[in-house]
Energy-coupling factor transport system ATP-binding protein (Marininema mesophilum), 280 residues
Amino acid sequence: MIQLKGVGFRYPSIKETGAEERVLSNIDLTVDQGEYLAVMGPNGSGKSTMARLFNGLLLPTEGEITVDGLNPRKLEEVWEIRRRVGMVFQNPDNQIVATTVLDDIAFGLENRGVSRDEMVERIQDAIARVGLTGLEKAAPHHLSGGQKQRLAIAGILAMRPSVIIFDEATSMLDPVGRREVIAAMKTLHQEGTTVIHITHSADEALHAERLIVMVEGQIQREGTPLQIFSKPEKLIEDALEVPLFIDLRERLRRQGMSLSQHSANSEELVEELWGLLSKG
Ligand code: ADP
Ligand code: MG
């Protein structure tokens, strides 16, 4: 779906010195069609820059990238890349463009040569898929944070994308809003959309099939979230938060308890602990 080979990126310098700072280097990465990928890493590690490369907003200054076989260096292909790769950003309020839910979703479809009938069908389908049915006439600024982010997702869905990137799209939401958006991500993934979730939350990253950890513009670790979180020493170094049950499990292991590293959630850890305790 998305393929990066030896990709590097520098922003053009704004300083007098002309020295350009390289913010990404040597990125080799393949994101498969239909994959659910999480991306973590400290602030400034290059996550958002990489997301902008994925959807053709930026071009690599070194190496090559293809998206669905399309080359962002070709002007006629970059627009198609931007249609196929949608992005949901951090601030729910900044993504609202119209005064009703319906118009907000329609906005992106206008001037795209989509017929009236098809527009109506796509909008209804998008609204249903994010669970906003009944709120078509509502004013977006009256919605909750989670609803606003789901509205942003609906606007992207109406464009029939292959990939949706969530760039810290849950970080400004309350716990209810976060759950709503994570649930939407899971549904999208089940329906075959490629989901890329940039997040600071280890608990959220656990939902993904694969996790990459970025440090200083490079991919430092790659694997399933459970594999990566179960090696905590390295993660502390990378300043990443670890899910509570894994933190607890690894501390108990270090204290000599014969726990496995198989538990995938707190329930499984508790079950294993009960097993050990009942053996005495
Ligand atoms: P992250 O999303 O992981 O926090 P970013 O991709 O936003 O990281 O930023 C990576 C680096 O690129 C940072 O050092 C940041 O200051 C720099 N940077 C980001 N956007 C720009 C820009 N538009 N112009 C110049 N430098 C930028
Ligand atoms: Mg960012």
